[in-house]
Specification:
mainly alpha; flat
Amino acid sequence: MIAKDFLAVAIFIIVGIAFSVISLLAAWFIRPHRPSEEKLTTYECGKDPVGPAWLQFRVGYYIYALVFLIFDVEAVFLFPWAAKLFGFSKNHSLAVLGFVDMVIFVAVLAVGLVWAYKKGVLEWK
């Protein structure tokens, strides 16, 4: 019974992998391969590049971006939740469960924010 239930899932996985591999191989065989010096240079807004293409950025930029992304995702989850919470007003227990779940979610993110603040991640140097 279980094998029969997962047969459709297995077929979809096999077809998906096969389609991806066949598409990549076909593109690799069909494409023209004519490398030149101009094609291998770094492209910078139509101008000739100045200096090396590989620069090292401070890790603070990435950490700041990750902290922003975490709270941006929080906002994406928070707005639909707030809109839906009013729809649960008829079923009080479901509304309380939704509220408690979101309080836990926001609390975990708040702990992350406090940790980032104490580590000095949010200070722009």
